[in-house]
Amino acid sequence: MKSEVKISENRLEITRIFNAPRDRVFAAWKQVDLLQQWWGCKDTIKVHSTMEFKVGGSFTHEMRIQGAGEMSFAGVYDEIIEPERIAYHAQFGPITVRVTVDFITLGDQTKIVLTQDGLPSSEICNRVSEGTTDAFDKLDQLLARQQPEVAASYAIER
User: Fold this and answer.
1) pLDDT at residue 154 above 70?
2) 35-50: per-residue pLDDT in tens?
3) DSSP classification of residue 3
4) Which helix (H) or strand (E) holds 155?
5) Which domains does the chain have, with CATH numbers?
6) Within a 10 A sphere around the Cβ of 75, how many other Cβ atoms?
7) Which one of 94, 113, 136, 138 has the lowest number of neighbouring Cβ atoms within 10 Å?
8) From CA 70, how far away is CA 74, in angstroms rounded?
9) What is the C-alpha to C-alpha distance for residues 132 and 126, in angstroms, rounded to an integer?
């Protein structure tokens, strides 16, 4: 499935439906070993993440991107309602961006609505949307590859 992207000034909203239950999709955001497999644009070679997945906890994602070098992304979790919502604020250079990710059950599928507020321009929103849709493509592939028994173990951890 393709991502639906809406951009208005400094706000970016990306909607995507995944062919996996909400618990599995949410687990891919909270389990560092899973997140490192899909985070970043299509040219991302390696991701190293540290996460303290709790309200007030911090995270850092260090990415090596082919042809672009190293990039780091850090933030703090503001809200976690498992398995419905993750909200955090993150640093994009000198700018703080508020990100909200909603996980909505659609039968045996999950709709994600990711909203980023505070990006400096629609041009930056376009660039960020490209990387995020690439990451969602990789997340879709990861969810499709997961073995049913592995996926069930992540749901039990909830």
Assistant:
1) no
2) 999 999 898 989 999 9
3) P
4) helix 148-157
5) 4-157 (3.30.530.20)
6) 19
7) 94
8) 13
9) 10
